[in-house]
Amino acid sequence: MAASVSVPERKSEVKRIFENMEYGPAPEASNVAKAWLQQHDNALGHFIGGKWVKPENRKTYDTCSPATGEVLASTTQGEEEDVNNAVSCAKEAFKSWSQLPPHSRARYLYAIARNVQKHHRLIAVMEALDNGKSIRETRDCDIPLVARHFYHHAGWAQLSDTEMRGWKPIGVVGAIVPWNFPLMLLTWKVCPALAMGNTVVLKPATFTRLSALLFAEICHEAGLPPGVFNVVTGNGAFGSKLAMHPDVDKVAFTGSTPVGQTLRRLTAGTGKKLSLELGGKSPVIVMENADLDSTVEGIVDAIYFNQGQVCSAGSKLIVQENIYDDLIARLKERMSHFRLGHSLDKGIDVGAVVSKQQLATITEFVEEAKVEGAEVFHAPVPVPQTGLFYPPTLITKVQTVSRVVREEIFGPVLVALPFRTAKEAQSIGNNTNYGLAASVWSDHLPTALELAISIKAGSVWVNCHNLFDAAAGFGGYRESGFGRDGGKEGLFEYVRPAWEERPRPECKEIDVKSFGSTFGGSIMPAPGQGQPTANDVQQNGIRLPKVDHTYKVYYGGAQKRPDGCYSRPIYAINKQIAAYVGDSNRKDVRNAVEAAHKAAPGWGKRAAHNRAQIVYYMAENLEMRRSEVANRLTQLTGESLESSMREVDLSIQRLFYWGAYADKFGGSVQETQLYGCTVCIREPVGVIGIACPDQNPLLAFVSLFAPAVIRANCVVIIPSERHPIPALDFYQVFDTSDLPGGVVNILSGGRDHVTKYLVEHQNVEAMWYFGSAEGSKFVEHSSAENVKRTWVNYGIQRDWSDPDQGQGEEFLYHATQCKNIWMPMGVTYAN
Amino acid sequence: MMNPGMELDLGWVQKTTINLPAVERRAATLRTRRTVKKSWQAAWLLRAVTCIDLTTLSGDDTSSNVSRLCYKAKHPIRDDLLKAMGMEDAGIEVGAVCVYSSRVPEAIKYLKQAGGSSIPVASVATGFPAGQTPLETRVEEIRRAIKMGAREIDIVISRTKALQGDWQGVYDEIKVCKEACGADVHMKTILGTGDLGTLTNVYKASLVAMMAGSDFIKTSTGKEGVNATLPVGLVMVRAIRDYYHKTGVKVGFKPAGGIRSAKDSCTWLALMKEELGDEWMKNDLFRIGASSLLTDIERQLYHFVYGRYAAAHQLPLA
């Protein structure tokens, strides 16, 4: 007999369990995490410039474990001075960090990845303790993704000179991240920012500050130079201070749509870059030919992962009618096997939700559905009595009108609706303000692919849900935000064109309500404001008045009289009135946007080859009018004829350039960890409003509409306000080049007036504005309403004739949005 | 309870598809979603012991190793360990002893000698492992094994017919075997999942085997390239669940081949609990076909009792 540790107290226990075969507790130890907190006297400050900084006289916030309510540590409520301190450290660090050779930055990022792995367990435990999510998820999902992100971006740092040629770092990035994946989501900001040579000041969410602070110390130990990555803690207003700090050059945000909108308005017109990864109401679409039991597991991954507190949670289950009852029955049975419990129990499925407020919101949503008469099914499993737990829930007998179907609940609550056909699934799936993610369940390839393409969302998973990887950008369409986290596509959020300086516009105050609202505000659309140009021709020695030429507005492929039936005078360089053009108003915008949307589906389905042919054809037709157009340019702008010729020639070149790109930017295969295929498709943004600048009235017009349309967008374009005629003449080129009606729509008139209605139109997906600083501010501010993508010039001119400035990747970036489609593969499991 | 079977419902058999990557994802997290520790682990391991079909199926089987196996079947865990856990009177013995039909008589003899007559002897039959013999001889094997005292029969399906999509043929043959087994002998049907090519075929074969009256469906012979893997098991237990919902009949499940670690046995038990429920965690509805698994379980229990890891030589050889 070797040893003799007897266990009498366990005797009856083993027998009892042998009979009932229950699960028992499987606790993960928290002693190391707690020792780390004690090392800091359970009172944490900011981490700035490579040091712990605990300013005096700050309020504190006690961070608690949602599973038990236990206080873990006190953290600092920062004040403006702390933001200033952190930003100035980051600004100082930027000087050397941005100048490091790419290989050096790669080494630092690699070291961080390594150190994250060294402390994997500690970070996982800290995250689970502080957030309430299960240790299984932090251990197997959050933290491995953190390490993976750093490895992947160490690679981008290494390759930045070649892969990101023509781009440069922005400066100081202010990152604001939420509490649902505290460390993982901060990584999604920090990795690309550092890889591209920026420095970062991060504000973690109030509820979950610990992992960020721990991580800051780990980065410091990994040798990251002081000031490159700083963590400051504080409340929401403190976050706004960070975003508004003049030396913060970019704000990177993940969080709720309302806060994203606030940040958009706050930073409007400041010249700061902004990326927003916001909320969602992502559909899970189940077709009759899906593997139903596997779909049920997919639904578990979609909505009960992380207590449903996932921006891409598949919270809207839509099921083909003929399998609806079967699937719902299977799902309910599956739900009876859930285990809820303490986040550090290794055998639980669902942990605690993050806060009392969150629990109250979830409860309120579900109660409201009950009142509406919906059927609410809570997983019939024990719910811990203490701690912030909400049982996994399924709501049926609801329809698209219900709030639980339309709004993001951010909890373990799923709504289910039936549909009849794939087409209807697509309509219901897209019947949402959001566009973050979706999953499609079908074992029929053509069905799955068509649905994946037709759902408007940044990530679409086929027969899976909530898969993430550093190599595939994550981010939304519509009110789910813009910009991508991850993949090469995500790098563009952290760079600016090499020729461009950070815009610091001197912007006058604007009244957002009244800006641009006066029709005829810039020039009165009336006669009597100048001398008309001499207007006659000689025929056989007889002087005749010229046949009158009327410039109309152009939409839906036809010239239309402007709705208001007003015309504004356009002056030639000699101050004489060259022509009158239509003065567009709100209703012209409405009609043009409608025409653009009508054209968009067909234009999108055209073969890229065909789009290219049309643009080349435009070049052909423009060249036929080369001298006529050049003469008119000279007459209007006063540039030399030689210079005008150059502008026409450059315009022709640019059409060729963009024609070439029509079939060369469709996307790529992403090298994620998925066994299968992750495809990034660069989809069109949709209908884009464009306001052209006054300089280079032809070249700028061509440079802006062409990249948009070759990437299958439709545009409503406001030509130069001062010199609209070259653009208006162009509609004859469109008409002779087989361009389908509605793809390019031209509205002449007051730039800011028409812009106002375009940017305020909820069905315009993006606005490109090249006008004044004030107009830029207005566009950015007003775009917040439906989280439009914007591209504005802050009143700063660019040189359209310079290929670096007038064409290139920047235009493609703005003309497309990335959708990543995840397609697992496999049938071989054995011989 | 025996499975009376049902008419072959080809519409049902044909309509389902199984998505391998999605099944694999579930199988991968099964291991990490559930774990049992301390007393729970000990109790679960003891339960696993009672579900083992302690098996030897080799060309070199003789009375020496069969007898050793039978004694181990009756005394799977050292008495001191059982006593320390308060389980000395719980009747801990394996679910069955599984041998080739020629070894059935001696298995019965040695079990009796060991005081383990309650332990059924299971015999493989029907041209095990390949099933490539004429149906008549396959059925004759069943009859003889039963005559020699086997109380359970593990048959193999014709992978030939399954791969050719002849589900009617698969059904008919199993039905004939079932008739040969009669009302008192439990029939376990081995699908040879490693040979079936797709998980969709695994699901179809599971359904067909149950429709034809199998009391258990079993993954593999242990002789295919790939044996009892969790994805395969998941598909089979889901078929069992579907069959139960449709007919009210509970069919048992037996993964066999490749299950060697104590942790694996707990994972398979968790699979049963999660996908089918607690009823399927007892040996009337769950068996594990294994030989070396028992040693690892005994080692784990030794550690639970004594807080030290045992050397292999400290545990009686099976």
From TrEMBL, chain A:
Q: Which residues cross the membrane?
A: none
Instruction: Note whether Oxidoreductase occurs among the keywords.
Output: yes
The record, for InterPro entries, names: Ald_DH/histidinol_DH, Ald_DH_C, Ald_DH_CS_CYS, Ald_DH_CS_GLU, Ald_DH_N, Aldehyde_DH, Aldehyde_DH_dom
Q: Which residues form the Aldehyde dehydrogenase domain?
A: 52-496, 573-795
Q: PROSITE patterns this protein is in?
A: ALDEHYDE_DEHYDR_CYS, ALDEHYDE_DEHYDR_GLU
Which is an annotated GO molecular function term of this record? oxidoreductase activity, acting on the aldehyde or oxo group of donors, NAD or NADP as acceptor
* Database matches in Pfam families: Aldedh
Q: Which UniProt keywords apply?
A: Oxidoreductase
Top-rank taxon = Eukaryota
Ribosomal protein found in the keyword field: no
Write out the catalytic residues in the record.
Answer: E277
Q: Which PANTHER family match?
A: ALDEHYDE DEHYDROGENASE-RELATED
Which family does the record assign? Answer: Belongs to the aldehyde dehydrogenase family.
List the protein's name.
Aldehyde dehydrogenase family 16 member A1-like
**Source organism of the structure:** Phallusia mammillata
From TrEMBL, chain B:
Got a GO cellular component term for this one?
cytoplasm
Q: What is its main location?
A: cytoplasm
| InterPro entries reported in the protein's UniProt record | Aldolase_TIM (IPR013785), DeoC (IPR011343), DeoC/FbaB/LacD_aldolase (IPR002915)
The catalytic activity, as recorded, is: 2-deoxy-D-ribose 5-phosphate = D-glyceraldehyde 3-phosphate + acetaldehyde
Do the record's keywords include Cytoplasm?
yes
CDD domains (UniProt xref): DeoC
A biological process (GO) annotation for this entry?
deoxyribonucleotide catabolic process
Keywords annotated in UniProt: Cytoplasm, Lyase, Nucleus, Schiff base
A GO term for molecular function: deoxyribose-phosphate aldolase activity
Which pathway is it part of? Answer: Carbohydrate degradation; 2-deoxy-D-ribose 1-phosphate degradation; D-glyceraldehyde 3-phosphate and acetaldehyde from 2-deoxy-alpha-D-ribose 1-phosphate: step 2/2
Report the EC code(s) recorded for this entry: 4.1.2.4
- Active-site residue numbers: K218, K254
Pfam families in the cross-refs:
DeoC (PF01791)
Describe the task this protein carries out: Catalyzes a reversible aldol reaction between acetaldehyde and D-glyceraldehyde 3-phosphate to generate 2-deoxy-D-ribose 5-phosphate. Participates in stress granule (SG) assembly. May allow ATP production from extracellular deoxyinosine in conditions of energy deprivation.
Q: How does it assemble?
A: Interacts with YBX1.
Q: Which family does it belong to?
A: Belongs to the DeoC/FbaB aldolase family. DeoC type 2 subfamily.
- UniProt-recorded name of the protein: Deoxyribose-phosphate aldolase
